């Protein structure tokens, strides 16, 4: 039996028993008295004032309830169990519920809505949204794989499991500093651009409110190495000589030279397949699905490129790709192989493979070749809409002459640089 000095007010329609505890004042209830309340054969209530009461069940469970009226109707909301929720906190919970009622909201419905929002928030982690974003890109599969690889190495270990709304600028800054220190400035810049794009996607799909990259976007210096600046002919010669003298994997060297001889993109070279080449006609036909603009691209091959490819064919001609992966020969080599070679040669930070095209475009323009030929060789779209509509010329013969001159120049620059180094080496 509950103690005689407590009293419970019985409301019409509430289950009550004649031996329920009685109290002279509803505000006089204390935590000690609530703890002392014993179960009876039927549930009963201990009122704490302003509609707040503790319901004691026959099994001994004690639950806080708050009775309120909204739009003329009486309602009840569960606030928690006792003693996990003591009297003081129960009153605070009641006060919070009362403020919701004043706004015309049912506390129970608001709690359910908050739980749904919390569940959605935790199902929208940064990694889930990042993978969705990558999947929606109009990129080649190998490009998507490379971007995911960077995220898996640099970003996901730190914020991948966090709900995207909980990622703060401090998290982003920590990732950028780690990337800069461990992977280099270029990887840091790629991580920064990628994270910002993912957060922008999350904001546009109403799963985040802000891009936390923005406040710290200038915290670390931009890439100082100017990887894409055009190289001088002395630098080109020195670089090609260094690669030729590199004692590493021959396929990497061959892929690097093919990139320079054709001015194709690094990924286009790395993923090249033997079926794309007609060495007798000195032509390389890259299918649309492998091109950035999703248009087939025809590249004339200079004599040096044909000789290189015939030599390479004796090594990998029985494979699908010119440059198979070391571990899985059914797949192509990865572009990271270029970076590793350049790092070993001391060229990391001075040059990136993408600067090959910048160098070729700059030097060929300086030599007076037609910009139309150069842009077509680089598979660039004509920026002028009218010219793009009417200019369908491929300039293949003209480009073949231009690229042969380019290949001859590369040989000349290599020889001049090598000759200039002989007295030093001697």
From TrEMBL:
Domain annotation Tyr recombinase: ranges: 226-403
Region feature Disordered, mapped onto this chain: 1-30
InterPro entries hit by this protein: DNA_brk_join_enz, Integrase-like_cat_sf, Integrase_catalytic, Integrase_DNA-bd_sf, Integrase_DNA_bind_dom, Integrase_recombinase_N, Phage_int_M, Phage_Integrase
Compositionally biased intervals (Basic and acidic residues): 1-12
Keywords tagged on the record: DNA integration, DNA recombination, DNA-binding
Pfam families: Arm-DNA-bind_3 (PF13356), Phage_int_M (PF22022), Phage_integrase (PF00589)
Domain of life: Bacteria
PROSITE patterns from the UniProt entry: TYR_RECOMBINASE (PS51898)
Family indicated by similarity: Belongs to the 'phage' integrase family.
Protein name stated in the entry: Tyrosine-type recombinase/integrase
Native species: Acidovorax benzenivorans
Record lineage: Bacteria, Pseudomonadati, Pseudomonadota, Betaproteobacteria, Burkholderiales
